Amino acid sequence: MDHAELSPPQRLALAYAPRRAQPAWRALFALDARCAGFVRARREPMLAQIRLAWWRERLQEGPANWPRGEPLLAELAAWGAALPVLAGLVDGWEALLAEGPLPPAAMTDFADGRAAAVDALARHLDSSAAAAGAAARLWALADLAAHLADPEERAAATAQARAAAAPATRLPRALRPLAVLATLARAELAGRSPARRALAAIRVGIAGI
Fold it and tell me: Going by fewer Cβ within 10 Å, which terminus of the chain is more open, N or C?
C-alpha cells in the first residue's frame, strides 16, 4: 500500500516496526489516515459521518462479507478477532465532528479510540503492554493539539496531553512505532524544535527508549 496518505510521524514510526509487525502497523496507520481525511472535510459533516459509518460497519461485520477491491480492507483482514475493536478508532474520529468549540469529552473519546486500536494491534501481535494505552493517548492528544487551529481547542487538547504524559517506559519490540510516536509527542509538549524532536524519535526507534 502507498504510504503517501500517512502523516510524516506515522511514516517515521513505521520505519522502526520489526518486519513481522509492519503489515499490522501499516494497516492501522492507513485506517487512521483514512478517517482523518474524512474528518478534515468537516465542512460536510454528514458525508464524513456516512463514510465513517461504512468503515465501522465493515470492521464490525468481518471479512467474510467485505467487498473486494479495497486494498486497505485486504490488509486489515489478517486482524481476525481484533477487527471489531478497530471500530472504536472510527468512533473516536467521528467524535471530532462535534460542533465547535470542540468539547473536551470529544478529545477524550478520540484518544480512547486510538488507544483501543493500539491495544487491539498489541493483542494481534501478542505484544500487549500495560504502558501502551497511556502512550497511545499521549500520541493522540498531542497530535490532535498540533492540528487544531482554534487556540482554545488547542490549549484544551494540550492540557489533556500533558495530563496523559506518563514517564517513558520501554515497550515490546513490536510496539516500537508507538514508542516513536509517544517520544515525538513528549518532545513537542516540551517545546523542542522539529529537528530535536526527530532526533529523539530516531534514538528511540533504534534503542527502544
Answer: C
CB 90, CB 55: distance < 8 Å: yes
Nearest to 175 by CA among 21, 11, 6, 28: 21
Q: Are 174 and 21 in contact (CB under 8 A)?
A: yes
Tell if the pTM clears 0.90, that is, is over it: yes
Q: How far is CA 193 from CA 180, 187, 197, 200, in A?
A: 16, 8, 6, 11
Q: Could you tell me the CA-to-CA distances from 138 to 23, 44, 47, 124, 131 in Å, in that order?
A: 23, 29, 29, 21, 11
Evaluated on CA atoms 139, 179, 122, 55, the torsion sign reads positive
Amino acid residing at 101:
P
C-alpha 1: how far from chain center: 18
